Amino acid sequence: MARPKTKELTERELEVMHVFWGGEEQTVADVRDRLATEGRDLAYTTVATLVRILLEKNYLKQTNDERPYRYLPIRSFEEVSGNLLGDLLSRVFGGSREQLLVRLMDQRKLTAKERKLLQDVLKDSNEQKQK
Q1: Does 17 score more than 80 pLDDT?
Q2: CATH at 10
């Protein structure tokens, strides 16, 4: 029995989207080659199927009418990652950002760079609230 279709991204679909979020139009062969250089050696037909699914889910658009077809992302990394994080927050942590943050901090200590970035984000957030 086939798996039911879902609007969410599978792990492999997300891998393919990361390649497209690199910036320029890509063909299936481009994506396959890029994944192979990153250690994910998938068959051309597998990547073609993933691209077709991403087209059907409206994550990608085809930009030309002749072969090889070229594709660009419709949805940005920021939009998709925000939706995935919101879903995780809702389903796993019952909407509690506090529980999510505590769990993140329990995993490992922040590096100095991460700590500085977090301080900057919090500072910007406080400045936005005061306006």
Answers
A1: yes
A2: 1.10.10.10
- 42 within some domain: yes
Tokens 């250089």 -> residue:
37
Over pLDDT 90: what percentage of the chain? 72
User: Coil, strand or helix: which one is 54?
Assistant: helix
Could you please report the per-residue DSSP string of 28-50?
Answer: HHHHHHHHHHTT----HHHHHHH
What are residue 76's phi and psi, to 5 degrees?
-80, 165
Residue 18, number of CB atoms within 10 A of its CB? 16
Reported as a single tens digit per residue, the pLDDT across 56-73 is: 999 999 999 999 999 999
Query: Is residue 58 situated within a structural domain?
Result: yes
Read off the pLDDT of each residue in 96-109 and give the average, rounded to a whole number.
88
Would you say residue 4 has pLDDT above 70?
no
**120: helix, strand or coil:** helix
- Which amino acid would we find at residue 39? G
Cβ neighbours for 66, distance < 8 A, ≥ 6 positions apart: none
Domain assignment present for 11: yes
